[in-house]
Design goal:
With 595 residues, this protein is mainly beta. It has 6 helices and 33 strands. The chain folds into 2 domains: 305 residues, Immunoglobulin-like; 201 residues, Immunoglobulin-like. The longest helix is centred in the last third of the chain and has 29 residues.
Amino acid sequence: MADPRFMLSLLCLALAVVVRAEDPYLFFNWNVTYGTISPLGVPTPAILINGEYPGPKINCTTNNNVVVNVFNNLDEPFLLTWHGIQQRKNSWVDGTPGTMCPIQPGKNFTYRLQMKDQIGTYHYYPSIGLQKASGGVGAINIHSRIFVKVPYFRFAPDLNFMLGDWFNKGHKVLRKSLDAGKPIGKPDGLQINGKSGKVGDDKLEPLFTVEAGNEYRFRYCNVGLKTSVNIRLQGHQMKLVELEGSHTVKNKYNSVDLHVGQCMTMLVKADQEPKDYYLVVSSRFVKPALTTVGIIRYVNGKGAPAKELPPPPPEGVAGIAWSINQFKSFRWNLTASAARPNPQGSYHYGQVAVNRTIRLVSSKVQEKGKLRFAINGVSHVDPDTPLKLAEYYGVGDKIYKNDTMPKEPPTDAKALQVIPNVLNTTLHEFVEIVFENREKSVQTWHLNGYAFFGVNIEPGRWSPEKRRNYNLIDAVSRHTIPVFPGTYASVLFAFDNTGMWNLKVENAERSYLGQQLYFTCLSPLRSVRDEVTMPEDAQVCGIVKDLPKPAPYAAYAARPKKKKSEASEAKEADEAEKNGDDKNDKEDDKDDKKN
């Protein structure tokens, strides 16, 4: 008789093989309130989360389930978006006005997110009403799973920097200006984690403290409204290791540009004389230039930071050339793993045929004397009913039409339609998007739900011949791309994530006044294999509020078989006939032998 202990071990082993543990859960409760902060030394109305600016940091690991219960204690609707988090097959929680109803004052909503197949530095922020101007932002750090190798010391401490421009007026005043068709003007200054500083200020408290000899991950995010910045760390080089969710070739930089909406991770070795050093953040392509400093302090360090700051990069035409060259120096680390164990370079995006080219040109226009911004002559407006809800309930045609935007930029620069801007896509099609900037300011474009390959930025206007200059080997997979004045930028990616996804310029003034659109990517099957069905607790509003809820997606639906061509059917018939003749010949041979 077998040993019972041995049989029990076998049973436990079998259960371990059959039962797969669910990915871990992290839970957060966030209270959103008004408060007063002074990033530039002037008391300013702010949006705080749990009484903090920046808000609470989410530290998680690839594939973790993150549950965030958000209580809106403001006097207006509120909605958070999770910048760069792809929400695979689940645009229901993407937090844009095209996908979700806002959280009403005095109410709460629970976001259920999964950090599916992602690593890197990200952030969250309010997506409606220009509320980002008053705060509500915070960091998201997604770490690789322990069995996935990373190309640097895994346990280097994280130091997060939420930085960018700041307006003292607050979002309600700025929003009122935009609603009146007027620009918001220039920012009042720059801030780092809600603080600003001047060279020589003896009362300046350190942003962070470091120990000599240790290496740190400096995680930077530009959470401003409209200003690109440059970052320098006095006396130290910074080694880029991650950019918008991708591991990069580990180049060293004395200064690095960070455009609105972008995040990156730099390794910094505390290898200098123990004392204080300035972290310098200065504006790019803005006159007059803005600068702020913060202190990085060595433990047991003695001595104030030097008053001489590292020089900024050039401005003007030379500055654009400098920034384009730096963009091209950012390279995908082809041998490093990211969220999965296989190397990033195992996906050869440059060998995939492009199915569709989308060319987008922005414009600054007037509608009845009021300022608007448009893409190919269309200025987007958000309807009262989120686009995704209308689509799901089958009433989308009542509030928007697909593909109203011209495929090519209009010849009339003043052409304007103010309507919801929605483009239909085909699941799995591989596309090329070209952004052209014929204006005078930097525009950073961001696409929710996806990562794309930024294959080129170049002066001038785009034409098909420009494809010769594309980087088809090791362009970084990312979710934002800067487009400098007088240049174009090209990106490549596959529409492989079903849902309703927002493409917009990160300049909040421009996107608020229409420079954005939505891609709808549907599966021909209403199946949870392709898209998450509408959550039971999803908020409803607008024209669908009182409609019966549609049936949920099927648990599984077989993909329809492709229709065979006449040539294929004829070929199969010939082969079947041939096989049948061979079989008959063999049977005749057997009969002959028997006889």
